[in-house]
What we know:
alpha/beta; 9 strands; EC 4.3.99.3; 4Fe-4S
Amino acid sequence: xxxxxxxxxxxxxxxxxxxxxxxxxxxxxxxxxxxxxxxxxxxxxxxxxxxxxxxxxxxxxxxxxxxxxxxxxxxxxxxxxxxxxxxxxxxxxxxxxxxxxxxxxxxxxxxxxxxxxxxxxxxxxxxxxxxxxxxxxxxxxxxxxxxxxxxxxxxxxxxxxxxxxxxxxxxxxxxxxxxxxxxxxxxxxxxxxxxxxxxxxxxxxxxxxxxxxxxxxxxxxxxxxxxxxx
Length: 230
């Protein structure tokens, strides 16, 4: 999807009062992360993010994009004829239009997940959406942006994700998970930062510590590398 350039996220409402969102891309791929890994999934990538994690692999979504009415987004999603939808970014919740978009996708009968940085309140997200919430580690450079209140509202079918940049990040996340007993609330995902931590090393650390967490490797990167739109 070739979208025109724009640099400002303004109000998510048109002059007629209809909600809209600014999109970087919509594409069909294989879900590479979280509990729905492996499913053919339509990714709806919203433009913009207030964070700057040092390992970010979607910095191209920080700027540009094009405004779409929500019904136009749903029409594009429907054209792929796929059940699973993932709304991602950037940080999708930075746009007010994301909330009604998630609701409309659920109303249309899709299985909807949301990938969010954990820096914005997730409590008002439609309860039919599965929220995948990051906890930023010190190695990300954005640990101070964590909104820990988000963890208190997660349901058992939802997930908390830690992207780990080093052994020190692993130890920080290990202690965080144990102290808060996050694994009793929902699934906890540990993921190696691509190119910074070897997946085999992380697997061994998890086994050595007997941690009740789920190791995830980014399947889409194994299949296609760092190709945008995959």
